[in-house]
Design brief:
Oligomer: single chain
Number of helices: 5
Strand content: 25-35%
CATH class: Alpha Beta
Helix content: 25-40%
Number of domains: 1
Largest sheet: 5 strands, antiparallel
CATH architecture: Alpha-Beta Complex
Radius of gyration: 16 Å
CATH topology: Peptide Deformylase
Strand order of the largest sheet: 1-2-3-6-7
Order of helices and strands: HHEEEEEEEHHH
Structural class: alpha+beta
Shape: globular
């Protein structure tokens, strides 16, 4: 396994729709090694998720995992989930304003409307079909990662640009209020 360099805002790879893989490509040793690298890079950066194009690979693969994450202590734990060729659809019209950051947009956070429930369909890393629903704060994490695969960054979805702030100012002025909102979502949905 190896750590991969994370692309940052402005790099063209982040703005392209990533290409789908075939099951044969997915089964290859190279792609399986890449998935290991993707997970290692996400964990090393304390991310809650990461998409392949964030590490300069233009393919539709992403990983989501929250395990007592120090960057997001209010997020509920979620087991390592690898998604290949994923799609997401809202299961409700209800939204919440998530205060998001991104490994590819360092030191910036902003409020993004996200659906409180989504259905995710994809393959796992073995090429098996997966189909599940995610709710609450965790639904926001999945929407964020799948956006990456379509070339969309959270800054594109910020509802009010006046909510953009540095990490330090988020901690100083906004964290406590958002953590209270996040905990209420987690209590309501369990995710």
């Amino acid at each position: 396994m190896a750590l991969r360099k994370i692309a940052t805002i402005g790099h063209p790879v982040l703005r392209r729709r990533a290409r789908e893989l075939t099951r044969d490509e997915l089964a290859s040793a190279g792609v399986q090694r890449f998935i290991d690298d993707l997970v290692e890079t996400m964990r090393d950066a304390s991310g809650a998720g990461i998409a392949a194009n964030q590490v300069h690979e233009d393919v539709r693969i992403c990983a989501v995992e929250v395990a007592n994450n120090p960057r997001y202590p209010y997020k509920p734990n979620w087991p390592l989930t690898i998604l290949v060729n994923p799609s997401v659809e809202a299961t409700t019209d209800e939204t919440f304003l998530n205060f998001e950051g991104c490994l590819s947009v360092p030191n910036l956070r902003g409020r993004v409307p996200r659906f409180t429930g989504v259905r995710v369909r994809a393959w796992d890393r073995a090429g098996r079909d997966v189909d599940f629903e995610v709710k609450g704060l965790t639904a926001g994490t999945f929407q964020h990662e799948l956006d990456h695969l379509d070339g969309t960054l959270f800054v594109d979805r910020v509802a009010d640009t006046r909510t953009l702030c540095t990490w330090a100012d988020y901690e100083r002025f906004h964290r406590d209020a958002f953590v209270a909102e996040a905990r209420a979502l987690v209590a309501r949905f369990g995710q």
